[in-house]
Amino acid sequence: MKLWDTHTHTTASADGIMKVEEAIARAEALGIGIGFTEHLDYEGDTEESYAVDPKALVEERKGLREKGVLIGIEAGLTLNTRGATKAALDVDLDFIVGSVHVVDGYDIFTTFWQQGEKEVLARKYLGYVLLMIERCPFFDSLGHIDYPSRYCPFPDKEMEYEDYKKEYDLIFEALLDNGKILELNTRRFMPDSGAGAKSLYCVLDAYKNMGGKLLTLGSDAHEAQRIGHCFDKAYEMANHVGLQFVRFVERKPVLFKNAR
């Protein structure tokens, strides 16, 4: 089976440091497919713009499809920007990752975790994710559901399924009702305690039990050496749970079997 890294960022994203050519070369060396999902975030705390122009991006990169590269966007979902985001995405994309980076104006990377206690904020984030699925259903796969745990300042960084079962189940139900799927993001598959991967396993298992069948797979690589990060472990995890990986081509899911 050929795996595909469907969530990566090149220098077209404000925080990406890899060039398109080196990313493609790295993926080829690993024997995996690749898709680029540059940032489209109209709201956040950074001075740099994280809002790529999707129309210009597709025009610039359309030739990459001949090399089997998928052209995508990671859209930051917020209530304040949903209209502008939806309009900007009305272009010839293969794939859209929908992600929550900002909750009620608070950027998770900077100020979100300063607003109160962990349990309260974790529930607030998960509730906002549910709201975005319902109000912004113009994406294909929900990106990095554990994103806040990357920057959580509390000793226990995880948002365990058993602690937030009601919130997670509502998210899974909304995804399935809206024809969306979940992403398995390997950014937090780190060689330390393995807490991030263990937490995600329980989330995936619950998603499967709710009726989920498909996943997208992404490293969230911003540099070439991170492409395909821990994909062997991710494949083993998904297989054990009983979920299948897909990539999206022209906004339609395709099982990981052959090249584009």
Provide a short characterization of the protein structure.
It contains 7 helices and 12 strands. The protein has 260 residues and is an alpha/beta fold.
Structure annotation, total helices: 7
* Amino-to-carboxy terminus distance: 13 Å
**What is the CATH superfamily?**
Metal-dependent hydrolases
**Class per helix and strand makeup:** alpha/beta
The biggest sheet, with number of strands, parallel, antiparallel or mixed sense and barrel status, is:
10 strands, mixed
Strand content: 15-25%
Sequence of secondary-structure elements = EHEEHEHEEEHEHEHEHEE
Indicate the radius of gyration in whole angstroms: 17 Å
What is the molecular shape? globular
CATH topology name, in short, is TIM Barrel
Total E-strand runs = 12
Characteristic key phrases:
10-stranded mixed β-sheet; 7 helices; globular; TIM Barrel; alpha/beta; 32% helix; single chain; 260 residues; two-stranded antiparallel ribbon
Secondary-structure topology with pairs:
Elements: E1 4-5, H1 20-30, E2 33-41, E3 50-51, H2 54-61, E4 70-76, H3 82-88, E5 95-99, E6 102-103, E7 106-107, H4 118-135, E8 141-142, H5 165-177, E9 181-185, H6 195-209, E10 214-218, H7 231-241, E11 244-249, E12 252-255
Parallel strand pairs: 1-2, 2-4, 4-5, 5-8, 8-9, 9-10, 10-11
Antiparallel strand pairs: 2-3, 6-7, 11-12
Helix pairs in contact: 4-5
